[in-house]
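tool_call: predict_structure(chain=1)
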Amino acid sequence: MAGEVAKEETVVTKVKILKKTNVKPHKPLGKKECQLVTFDLPYLAFYYNQKLLIYKGAENFDETVEKLKDGLALVLEDFYQLAGKLGKDEEGVFKVEYDDDMDGAEVIVAAAEGIDVADLTDEEGTSKFLDLIPCNKILNFEGLHRPLLAVQLTKLKDGLTIGIAFNHAVLDGTSTWHFMTSWAELCCGSTSISVPPFLERTKARNTRVKLNLSPPSDAPEPAKSATNGDVTASVDPPLRERIFKFSESAIDQIKSKVNANPPEGSSAPFSTFQSLSAHVWLAITRARQLKPEDYTVYTVFADCRKRVDPPMPESYFGNLIQAIFTVTAAGLLLGQPIEFAAGMIQQAIVKHDAKAIDERNKEWESNPKIFQYKDAGVNCVAVGSSPRFKVYDVDFGWGQPESVRSGSNNRFDGMVYLYQGKNGGRSIDVEISLEANAMERLEKDKEFLMEA
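tool_result:
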């Protein structure tokens, strides 16, 4: 590991910031504002959501930068909320504010001409991305005085990276990739985007929630004990991050195995997501070497666009996700066949209907709690992103990305991101953050890796 860490540090120090500018919508839009709703507010104490797209090609970097900035100015006409700031009205209700006098999105231009694309596309770690993506360890709450969108365009020896930081109180993953594909469309010559964003958040939830938040201090937060809520001193264990690539064939094998003996009462065949989730949950639980009586939690950040009543369009812009939890004892989970885990996950997802969403919202609104990104619980496996997002379709005119990764923000022991595999079809990349010793065991788990 020491050699890998040293290599990452060397890569990071080669990034030089050349210029910082701001990009506003191409034409004046006047003054606009939009109230944040119950689906948005819990994320105020998360960090900015970070993505990194790594490309080969794009021969003339300066021309490419101007093309990307021109496209950004155009796409911000529709997605103008990303060019605004967070604000609060006189009652303390958070909103997104935009007017033509605001600075807009931040664009950073940088060079790392000693770095190859290949230096960034291996499967280990995220520390090498730190200087390639803006807003490291910046809380969404700080959108009161920071841009809601920051973009860094970095020239490499044989390509470039596009590092993006989005304020997570303003949008979720579905909206993130809707924005990215729309931006790419305009850069490729479209005169308008094919699917405009649906911007009326209050159609999904029209409840005014007043929050009295103070600016966060820089002091580290003490952790809460998992047993009784007492505040205890804690030091987070060192994490490792790794991508595990599952081919179409491997995904099909996992799905076939999980569906071979469906448990009584299962509502339908297990989906690809439910099957892979069970596979990952079992493997991480094995790698953690938990005691049989230790609880383990599986958390899915589920898209609620089609679950709410009335349903919202896929183009709904904002957060329309909720965390769904299922929990069991490690010994019970590992002592049962894989379809037991899949059944628990499926049941939790099926039960999360419009009524359950409404009850969750009402409960939160009666006693609003602002979560930290790592509040998912002990021994948790939490799944974000989705292989449904067409991340490799984000082509600005010089080809698809070589790799798409998440940044270092909002990571904790057990955080999992699922991405479409670069080879397309049913292949899936599984990006896992795990305590270092557990990761070492996971890397040797032949059952998880689908090795004979």
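agent: The chain has eleven helices and 17 strands. Proceeding to next step.
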